[in-house]
Amino acid sequence: MKEYKNVHILDHPLIRHKVALIRDKNTNTKQFREIICEIATLMAYESFKDVPTQEIEVETPLERTKQTVVKENSVAIVPILRAGLGMVDGILTLFPAAKVGHIGLYRDKHTLEPHEYYCKLPKNIEEKVVMIVDPMLATGGSACDAIKLLKARGCKRIKLMSIIAAPVGVEKVAETHPDIDIYVSTLDRCLNENGYILPGLGDAGDRIFGTK
To answer: Is 201 exposed, middle or buried (0-12, 13-18, 19+ CB in 10 A)?
Structure first.
């Protein structure tokens, strides 16, 4: 895959360790859900390092001093339903006051094209840094549609976070939306004929929610 300035591979030993666990078909629903959340926290630490900040004054036991804090109401998390929900709590661990929106997109089994069925976003989302989350970035169609939808609502600072990605999906998003920073932990080999990432981890939504 060619290199893109807006693509960031968050290669870290802790993340690699946890990705190995969620790949394992014997990892049960409870464990899978918890590990997805943990990976999201680790990825959020790096992908939000340019979060808006402001300077405040605090009083220590010894004196007053100026400190830098995250700007209030500056972050929104938008999971792509349903698998993206599994990453939300992991990011809220770091940004407990972040607003959460939801975008519902389903993929046509024959064409693999995404179709919107639900969208509910926080008030004034266009003023926030918006992180779209989805554990798997496969064809890139859903991510591109979610980004397009947010841009149509005036959002100017949008990021995308996926745990596992296929090269074709990364390329599609990077080239369609070169202004969007893409964060993935693992770049897998390819897609199979059904649009699943290989080696992947199966259907993330089914494994998070225990459905088939």
So the answer is: buried
**SS3 assignment for the chain:** CCCCCCEEECCCHHHHHHHHHHHCCCCCHHHHHHHHHHHHHHHHHHHCCCCCEEEEEEECCCCEEEEEEECCCCEEEEEEECCCHHHHHHHHCCCCCCEECEEEEEECCCCCCEEEEEEECCCCHHHCEEEEECCEECCCHHHHHHHHHHHHCCCCEEEEEEEEECHHHHHHHHHHCCCCEEEEEEECCEECCCCCEECCCCCHHHHHHCCC
Backbone angles phi, psi at 207, to 5 degrees: -75, -30
Confidence (pLDDT) at 108 = 73
**The tokens 């946890």 sit on which residue?**
18
76, β-bridge pairs: 99, 130
Q: How far is the C-alpha of 168 from the C-alpha of 189, rounded, in Å?
A: 10
Cα 22 versus chain centre, distance: 16
- 23 pLDDT more than 70: yes
From CA 200, how far away is CA 125, in angstroms rounded? Answer: 32
Structure pTM?
0.91
Amino acid present at 200: G
Would you name the residues annotated as active-site residues?
107, 111, 203, 206
Burial of 152 (0-12, 13-18, 19+ CB in 10 A): exposed
